[in-house]
């Protein structure tokens, strides 16, 4: 074919490159994870996540208004729970006046059109730091899913648009969907962490919420990073059970999984670019070893190219600012 076909013709300048570009990032692509703490006037930086903060509710209000101005229209809420409120059953998780429930109302009050998604899992509430009820060193599946359903209902009552179960118990999507339907919350959506791996990239997040497991690890419920077929199985089951959006987590190391799932399902696919991915780039950029903005955009583009319809990312605000 050469020299009739020269592929570089389509790369000669920015005008032609942008015409033929297959993937682009916009503020519409993002879910913004937000960490919330009790108190007033608190904006504290997370040590292992430079330039990322925990907010008290009053400052959360300011933050979501700023996000909205940048074109970011969806938030994913996480709460840091004081130790004295933690127990094995995560009782505080279903407190109608709990921090999460108040946070949902705060966001809706500040920016009524902001899409609010809530994290549904026991670990921030668990005295063991696990995503389920513990007995004899084991994580009990069915006792946990019943609580997750109650927790989801409580978030829906507070005004959450979507609940996002991140726990990886079997059957939790079915339990949550059933209870939401029974209680008339037909429009409350479920974004399921369907293919969530037992990853070492979650470390900084566990610092942010003080939610590291007190014993053992999460390998009896989160997936083995070595597995690919299993991700399809998990995801198809979650869709059958009622998930509206499915998620792959973490991001970069799992883009083969993202593409597999994108090619297999007909619901939107979310990807979570997790805390460790954020920390790695921040650290390298601080040292001057990588160009922060360029690498950030390359990573986000790669995630979207792999098949993500949306990206939960701690870079959302950085990217939105860069794009504006
Ligand atoms: C726990 C949960 C985790 C994350 C989101 N929800 C950590 C874990 O499974 O231990 C991690 C997110 C991140 O690392 O950014 N339910």
TrEMBL record:
Positions annotated as active site in the UniProt record:
196, 249
Coiled-coil boundaries: none
- What reaction gets catalysed by this protein? 2 5-aminolevulinate = porphobilinogen + 2 H2O + H(+)
The superkingdom listed in its UniProt entry is: Bacteria
Q: Which Gene3D superfamilies match?
A: Aldolase class I
Protein name per its UniProtKB record = Delta-aminolevulinic acid dehydratase
Its Enzyme Commission number(s) read: 4.2.1.24
Q: Name one GO biological process term.
A: protoporphyrinogen IX biosynthetic process
A GO MF annotation of the entry reads: zinc ion binding
InterPro entries per UniProt: ALAD, ALAD_AS, Aldolase_TIM
The record's keywords, sorted A to Z, are:
Heme biosynthesis, Lyase, Magnesium, Metal-binding, Porphyrin biosynthesis
Q: What species does this protein belong to?
A: Antarcticibacterium flavum
Can you tell me which residues bind Mg(2+)? Answer: 234
Q: What enzyme class is recorded for this protein?
A: lyase
- Pathway(s) per entry: Porphyrin-containing compound metabolism; protoporphyrin-IX biosynthesis; coproporphyrinogen-III from 5-aminolevulinate: step 1/4
Instruction: Tell me yes or no: is Translocase among this UniProt entry's keywords.
Output: no
- Description of how the protein assembles with itself and partners: Homooctamer.
UniProt family annotation: Belongs to the ALAD family.
Q: Which GO terms describe its cellular component?
A: cytosol
NCBIfam families given in the database record: PRK09283.1
